Amino acid sequence: MQLYETHKMPRPEIPFIFCDTFRCSRTHLCCICNWHENIEILMILGGKGFVRVNEDRYPVEEGDIAVVNSGQMHDIFSRDSMHYACLIIDRSFFLQNYLDSNKLTFAPVIKDPELFQMLRNFEENYKNEDSPYQVQMLRRDAMDIIVKLCQDHCGGEVFQKSETRIHSTIKKVIYRICSESQNELSLDTIAKDEGWNKSYLAREFRRYTGQTMIEFLNTIRCENARKMLLETDLSVGEVGRRCGFNDQTYFTRVFRKHLGKTPGGYRKEERARRGL
């Protein structure tokens, strides 16, 4: 099974990714359902929302920490608004320190002010690029976080559910949609290829991802189109076609629903905002 998302670490000596700019709301889905091998730690900085892990949904609010374990399908959403930071620790760092993140299972939601402050310390040092000891401080901070998780919030099989056949199938369908989104895809074809009843697969896909397959496909296509609109000078129609929308009117309607702007309006506003 190929992983849907892979992570390119900025520097080999800093096998971490940190970002604190994620914001989601009723009209903005900030994280599309995905999975990856590396451990992901979310710090809820403001508001409240939900973290969906596999088929389970967990409410989170400011001050909470959510952990996505290796291989778990997940997405993040809010019915109001939520601001969160994300720390991803590469598996290589665990292995270098005689731990295997693939064999560890942490609690999905944690309320621990001490751990929250440790993450804040990591954030401060991550942004302090002028420090001659940044690498050493970050590796120290990451180990402090991992040890704290292992000592206080590691449940082994308590938090881990075995992967069912339908769970594995949903992963395969997500990967297929993401990798073939520019092509014609139909629920009938996918269900037949995977050996499932169409209605059952559609119902389970929505239960795991919160979206129908068409909604998920259109979300992926719109995200690809959004990037292409900013990175190329292709016409709006051509961008739509390359992303799988053969009808420009439909492309405009779906894109507006996804991002609140027409493709042309989004390109104009974002390029002006970024000074492009």
Summarize the structure.
Helix content is 45%, strand content 20%. It is built from ten helices and eight strands.
Could you give the topology of this structure?
Elements: E1 16-25, E2 31-34, E3 39-53, E4 56-61, E5 65-68, E6 74-77, E7 81-89, H1 91-96, E8 109-110, H2 113-127, H3 134-152, H4 165-179, H5 187-194, H6 198-209, H7 213-231, H8 236-242, H9 248-259, H10 263-274
Low-pLDDT runs of 5+ residues are none
- The ordered H/E elements are EEEEEEEHEHHHHHHHHH
Please bin the fraction of helical residues: 40-55%
**Which range does the strand content fall in?**
15-25%
Q: Give the helix/strand class.
A: alpha+beta
Question: CATH class of the largest domain, anyone?
Answer: Mainly Beta
Q: Indicate how many domains the architecture comprises.
A: 2
Quote the CATH topology of the largest domain.
Jelly Rolls
Number of helices: 10
Judging by the overall fold, what is the CATH architecture of the largest domain? Sandwich
User: Would you report the number of β strands?
Assistant: 8
- Name the CATH superfamily assignment of the largest domain: Regulatory protein AraC
Overall 3D form: globular
Return the average pLDDT rounded to an integer. Answer: 90
What is the radius of gyration computed over CA atoms, rounded to a whole number of angstroms? 20 Å
Distance between the termini: 39 Å
Please describe the biggest sheet, giving its number of strands, its sense, and whether it closes into a barrel.
Answer: 8 strands, antiparallel
